[in-house]
Amino acid sequence: MLSAAHDILSHKRTSGNQSHVDPGPTPIPHNSSSRFDCNSVSTAPPGSRQWDLCCWKLRPGCLFSFCGDQPVCYFLLLTSPEAQDPGGEEEAESAARQPLIRTEAPESKPGSSSSLSLRERWTVFKGLLWYIVPLVVVYFAEYFINQGLFELLFFWNTSLSHAQQYRWYQMLYQAGVFASRSSLRCCRIRFTWALALLQCLNLVFLLADVWFGFLPSIYLVFLIILYEGLLGGAAYVNTFHNIALETSDEHREFAMAATCISDTLGISLSGLLALPLHDFLCQLS
């Protein structure tokens, strides 16, 4: 979905059946008054249909998934199980079912994650901010680049089409993420704030290039985007690794779960800002 975003937005739907895409779609004319080769909307989630798809299918990239769908499903759609009759047919069926491997249910230990008080959870969460804030910043910066700048980093002096350039950007970013998430045994980083700072510098540098167009070759952008993916993957894996090492046994489960909001929050905020940025830049002549 990420690598195909530019292609999806560049083509019209058929005028008849709105649920199918024409096998040979006609490209939408780009904004001829802009100095950028822009689609009519950004590759960040645009329009009501894209928001719906984002919320229900690609939830990690959507603000509503963080706030409109899980609580709604939990409180409004799910129903409480009805009380079962202790006797009769249902009890016989339940008794007939035997587990493949017999294991004793572990008893809830005092001080486990499920037994933490609200005050204890808040204390643990405050201690996690040293890790949560840098990870939010890293994801905000890299997805601001991916959703707001990738399409505008277009080079005319290359054999690659605009769509091909966009797909290469996404592939190189994901390759960098894959490599760095697999590098924990080779390199461990304690201060993830440094990764957040470097990712922000990437954002500023690429935004400046979109504005001034000073990079002479697309291959330099390829290297920067690969580096962007390396920073993002390293921030993710080292954040959770450090939390696993530095939290106590009774707090670790809650700490890991609480930190999971970081990437969703960063991606959601970057998407909200990437939409108006795209519109503003594409209106420049």
TrEMBL record:
Transmembrane segments: 128-146, 191-212, 218-237
Superkingdom: Eukaryota
Cellular component GO terms, alphabetical: endomembrane system; lysosomal membrane
Polar residues compositional bias, start-end: 29-39
Pfam families documented for this protein: CLN3
Alphabetized Gene3D superfamilies for the sequence: MFS general substrate transporter like domains (1.20.1250.20)
Coiled coil: none
Membrane protein topology class: Multi-pass membrane protein
Main localization category: membrane
Subcellular location: Endomembrane system; Lysosome membrane
Region (Disordered): 7-39, 85-115
Keywords: Lysosome, Membrane, Transmembrane, Transmembrane helix, Transport
Family in the record: Belongs to the battenin family.
Protein name: Battenin
Species this protein is from: Homo sapiens (Human)
Lineage of the organism: Eukaryota, Metazoa, Chordata, Craniata, Vertebrata
